[in-house]
């Protein structure tokens, strides 16, 4: 049995299933055996790195005795280094988010952190090296946006200029003008910190017609005290809605029949956190905004991880056509290309009909 790094062009369904198992921490021994026997570690690592979930896989594998699984020393070192690197990076992100919160608190603002940052700050017992982040998403009340920008400018942040010819700038009015058709301002960056910060005007894009109102999210937010800093995090129901509508649907996984590894992990993580006695997810609130899309997501999850137990799966067998598309896109490159094209076209058409000014703003940036 080989455990080295082999070379293959693209992952087939067998590899995708193995990556799903590693991401979910489910049937790890079976997944590792499959990868070893097919000599596919190189492909698994490349796929997971592209999908920004190798840190999570490394976190799950770091808890296993990989020597017993026949994993080579080279792969064990790569996994160990990836986990250590992500722990170090996320400690820096935690510190960055905390400093931003302290500055905003001093201005009378309690920021709402979204997505991965909310989990990073509020899950005290979770492995800090498990999730990879590309940015820090925060949301404030509409009348606090200007003050939030001013506060971040005061502590060394600046706006990313959309034009490559321009340097980063500190003009709030220009940033608002450049993002007038988008749900967040241009990212703000600091030379002293790793991640850009996106200040959201709304929690989900305008083209997602079924998303809950801003007022509903604000009412449901939970306040957390993190080392004396006050943050807010969306309720579990709003985070699940954001995951399904924002990550699964808007990011194109749904329309392309593509497996969303990070969303799978986040869904399992969020629902597991509420499985303790006394905890309960109000599924009627979730399904009010995304019932059909959640069923589609759960069917996808059942296809990818049929062995995982309730409450993650549908009680019925997933639709055969959905299963054929998901498996087919990975086993047949032409079908995968067609689904990718369809997904991009659907995204552009949806944006054009629901928010046509957004398309024009893209062209404005291209002309600069």
Kindly list the characteristics that best describe this protein.
368 residues; mainly alpha; Beta Polymerase, domain 2; 3 domains; 3-stranded mixed beta sheet; two-stranded antiparallel ribbon; 16 helices
Morphology: globular
**Separate helix tally:** 16
CATH names the topology of the largest domain as Beta Polymerase, domain 2
Run of helices and strands: HHHHHEHEHEHEEHEEHHHHHHH
For the termini, the CA-CA separation is 55 Å
**What proportion of the residues is helical, as a percent range?**
55-70%
State the strand order across the main sheet: 1-2-5
Which CATH first-tier class of the largest domain would you pick? Alpha Beta
Number of strands: 7
- From the alpha carbons, calculate the radius of gyration and give it in angstroms: 21 Å
Compute the number of structural domains: 3
Largest sheet entry: 3 strands, mixed
Strand content: 5-15%
What CATH architecture of the largest domain do you see? Answer: 2-Layer Sandwich
What structural class do the secondary elements suggest? mainly alpha
Mean pLDDT: 86
């Amino acid at each position: 049995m080989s455990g080295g790094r082999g070379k293959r062009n693209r992952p087939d369904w067998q590899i995708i299933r193995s990556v799903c198992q590693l991401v979910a921490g489910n049937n790890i021994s079976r997944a590792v055996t499959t990868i070893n026997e097919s000599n596919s570690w190189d492909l698994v690592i490349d796929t997971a790195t592209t999908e920004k979930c190798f840190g999570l896989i490394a976190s799950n594998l770091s808890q296993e005795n990989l020597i017993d699984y026949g994993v080579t020393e080279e792969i064990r070192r790569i996994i160990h280094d990836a986990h250590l690197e992500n722990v170090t990076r996320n400690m820096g992100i935690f510190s960055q988010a905390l400093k931003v919160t302290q500055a905003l608190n001093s201005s009378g603002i309690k920021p709402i952190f979204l997505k991965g940052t909310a989990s990073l700050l509020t899950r005290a017992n979770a492995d800090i090296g498990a999730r990879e982040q590309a940015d820090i998403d925060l949301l404030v009340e509409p009348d606090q946006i200007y003050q939030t920008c001013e506060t971040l400018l005061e502590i060394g942040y600046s706006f990313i200029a959309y034009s490559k010819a321009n340097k980063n700038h500190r003009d709030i009015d220009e940033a608002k003008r450049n993002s007038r058709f988008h749900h967040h301002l241009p990212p703000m960056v600091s030379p002293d910190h790793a991640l850009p910060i996106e200040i959201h005007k709304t929690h989900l894009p305008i083209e997602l017609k079924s998303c809950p109102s801003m007022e509903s999210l604000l009412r449901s937010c939970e306040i957390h005290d993190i080392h004396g800093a006050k943050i807010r995090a969306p309720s579990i129901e709003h985070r699940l809605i954001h995951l399904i509508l924002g990550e699964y649907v808007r990011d194109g996984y749904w329309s392309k029949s593509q497996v969303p590894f990070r969303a799978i992990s986040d869904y399992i993580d969020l629902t597991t956190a509420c499985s303790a006695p006394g905890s309960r997810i109000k599924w009627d609130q979730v399904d009010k905004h995304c019932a059909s899309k959640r069923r589609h997501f759960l069917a996808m999850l059942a296809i990818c991880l049929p062995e995982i137990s309730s409450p993650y799966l549908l009680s019925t067998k997933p639709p055969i056509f959905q299963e054929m598309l998901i498996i087919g896109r990975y086993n047949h490159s032409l079908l995968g290309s067609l689904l990718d094209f369809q997904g991009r076209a659907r995204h552009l058409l949806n944006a054009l009909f629901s928010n046509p000014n957004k398309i024009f703003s893209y062209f404005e940036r291209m002309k600069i």
